[in-house]
Amino acid sequence: MSGFLDGIRCGDCECNVDWGERRNTIASVAAGVLFFTGWWIIIDAAVKYPDEGQFHHAYHTCGVIATVAFLMINAVSNGQVRGDSYSEGCMGQTGARVWLFIGFMLAFGSLIASMWILFGGFVVPQKPVVYPGIAIFFQNAFIFFGGLVFKFGRTEDLWQ
After folding, report:
1. How far apart are CA 51 and CA 20, in angstroms?
2. Which of 27, 54, 66, 116 could form a disulfide with 143 if both were Cys (CB 3.0 to 4.6 A apart)?
3. Per-residue pLDDT tens over the stretch 113-123
4. How far from 75 is each of 45, 69, 79, 113, 121, CA to CA, in Å?
5. Cα(31)–Cα(143) distance, rounded to whole angstroms?
6. Does residue 147 contact residue 70 with C-beta atoms inside 8 Å?
């Protein structure tokens, strides 16, 4: 999956741009835009519905956990997980894999919790305002997909 940006063609233009050289830049910008969009949506919902009855402030926990998961997932390189570049430390390759696994568990958990909040807190009780629940879900979805793009969209071959 880490080579999905390799096959992108820019049409039949005469410019000879090597997109493989810019792969890390494109993936980083795309991930940053997704991460920013997620937080922008939840800030909009918090500003629009400041009342505790319409938008409970504890619902922000899902976004914070998703952000921590984003950082945990991307703190470990693919080489460390494979064992190519990391053999020292207290746990070595196993520690890197456990760290990555916990990061993915937090990311999936926050995404599932945001769906739970959307349906359990807004849709099933038939509240008149559903936008805060939708905002929570989209915030976590954008952060989750931003983390995946940042982790698997870049290549480590260009770092050397």
Report:
1. 48
2. 66
3. 999 999 999 99
4. 30, 10, 12, 23, 33
5. 8
6. yes
Q: What is the pTM of this model?
A: 0.83
Which one, of 153, 152, 160, 150, lies nearest residue 20 by Cα? Answer: 153
| 86 or 78, which is more confident | 78
- Are the beta carbons of 157 and 23 closer than 8 angstroms? no
Query: Mind listing the pLDDT tens digit for each residue in 119-158?
Result: 999 999 999 999 999 999 999 999 999 999 999 988 876 5
pLDDT for 12 beyond 60: no
8-21: string of b/e by CB count within 10 Å (b at 16+)?
A: eeeeeeeeeeeeee
Closest CA relative to residue 155, chosen from 34, 29, 27: 27
Side chain identity at residue 148, one-letter code: L
Straight-line distance from the first to the last Cα atom of the chain, in angstroms, rounded to the nearest whole number: 20
Structure token digits, residue 53: 């009855």
Q: Given phi > 0 = left and psi -120 to 50 = alpha, else beta, which region is 51?
A: beta
